[in-house]
Amino acid sequence: MLFSLLLVAAGASASSSFDTLVTFGDSYTDNGRLGYYINNGGKAPPPGQLQTESTTTASGGLNWAQYAARAVNASLVDYAVSGATCSNKLVSRYFAAIKAPFPSVLDDEIPSFEADVNFKSVFPKPRTADGTVYALWIGTNDLGYGGFLSDSQAPGTTISDYVECVWAVLDAIYKNGGRRFVLLNTAPLELAPLYAPAAANGGGGTLDSQFWANKTAYNVTEYAFKIKEYTTSVNKIFAYGVPFQVVIKSRWPGAMVDVFDVHSLIMDIVASPKTYLDAPYNVTGYWHHCLATNSSVCVDQTALGPRSGFLWYDELHPSDKTDSVIASNFVDVVAGKSKYGTRYTSSGWDSLGA
Ligand SMILES: *[C@@H]1O[C@H](CO)[C@@H](O)[C@H](O)[C@H]1NC(C)=O
Ligand SMILES: *[C@@H]1O[C@H](CO)[C@@H](O)[C@H](O)[C@H]1NC(C)=O
Ligand SMILES: *[C@@H]1O[C@H](CO)[C@@H](O)[C@H](O)[C@H]1NC(C)=O
Ligand SMILES: *[C@@H]1O[C@H](CO)[C@@H](O)[C@H](O)[C@H]1NC(C)=O
Ligand SMILES: *[C@@H]1O[C@H](CO)[C@@H](O)[C@H](O)[C@H]1NC(C)=O
């Protein structure tokens, strides 16, 4: 009896490892893709070709997806583009360097993925249901300055539309054979130096910034409250919405979705820096300071200890140290053994031989 129960449990779970990691998102995940667009007249890499991987990402070094893939020796297939939102039909931000809006997940990253699925040059290992994990981390630009925070969304569109866009991304991956998803929830952006009030108002935040040129023209205390409202609401919608879509609606039969509560993980780093970062620990400031008026004039905070002591690399991006922490927890989430992961499986998952 006990034996057969164990068998059922084993059948319903996934193997703890994966050999291919496919990522969608923004600068938190981009490993060089926006750079390709910039250097190639605003065009995506042609079908069958990935961008050259950069080891200096927006984290200052490797990003979480690179650490995670390296940790398990998986192929990393990254479609994330810095500056991306879920869809340019909701939030579209013009990017002068490509004379177009930043490429978005649904409108650019997904079509690029669809064009690549049959190329061995991109997917050297077969895309099996169990061994290929698709991760989506999107929302920082959608919800932030230039998006919902500054009321810059397309007229009449809402945060619910953004959530529907997230489901639509999973629909598209599912249609192309994806069965194993990880949805990373949104970070506590009100704590990012970009959105935190400045020291004068009791925070560790910036004044005007390369990413928000006239921040000081705003009541940032209110804007920090707003972005906290947006990110936490989105995370609550994900927490309730994923089981609803997976289990109640059976939207993706035979699929497994892990919600990775990266928000709580970052809060835990803030609460207990010495567990995660190197001394002397800095969870309010950031390492890489650039001029608000010229993002190529920058000074690193070498006098304040090593970069690996900082939660934030710059005013918006987690450091590579933080990303290495996110990566090891991501691997545990996929293995089904992380307190930051909540797993939902749709009927039919176990019949895939997973
Ligand atoms: C990592 O994966 C590659 C390609 O699949 C393989 O050739 C190599 O032996 C693997 N390395 C380890 C340490 O497992
Ligand atoms: C900040 O700058 C943006 C872009 O130039 C402008 O649209 C907005 O009105 C400015 N905000 C304030 C409060 O001055
Ligand atoms: C900024 O907003 C906070 C929160 O609403 C409020 O307490 C404060 O008085 C405002 N500051 C200014 C200068 O209006
Ligand atoms: C954290 O870093 C900021 C620089 O961004 C610095 O101003 C602040 O003093 C540092 N905090 C600590 C506790 O060292
Ligand atoms: C920004 O700084 C770089 C490096 O000093 C300089 O080459 C460039 O002209 C500056 N850009 C602007 C817009 O001032």
UniProtKB/TrEMBL annotation:
Instruction: Specify whether Hydrolase is a keyword of the entry.
Output: yes
Q: What is this protein called?
A: Uncharacterized protein
Enumerate the Pfam families for this protein.
Lipase_GDSL (PF00657)
Signal sequence, start to end: 1-17
Which superkingdom does the taxonomy of this entry point to?
Eukaryota
**What lineage does the source organism belong to?**
Eukaryota, Fungi, Dikarya, Ascomycota, Pezizomycotina
User: Which InterPro entries does the record cross-reference, listed alphabetically?
Assistant: GDSL, GDSL_Est/Lipase, SGNH_hydro_sf
> What SUPFAM superfamilies is this protein classified in?
SGNH hydrolase
Q: Which UniProt keywords apply?
A: Hydrolase, Signal
The record's Gene3D superfamilies line, in alphabetical order, gives:
SGNH hydrolase
Name any one GO molecular function: hydrolase activity, acting on ester bonds
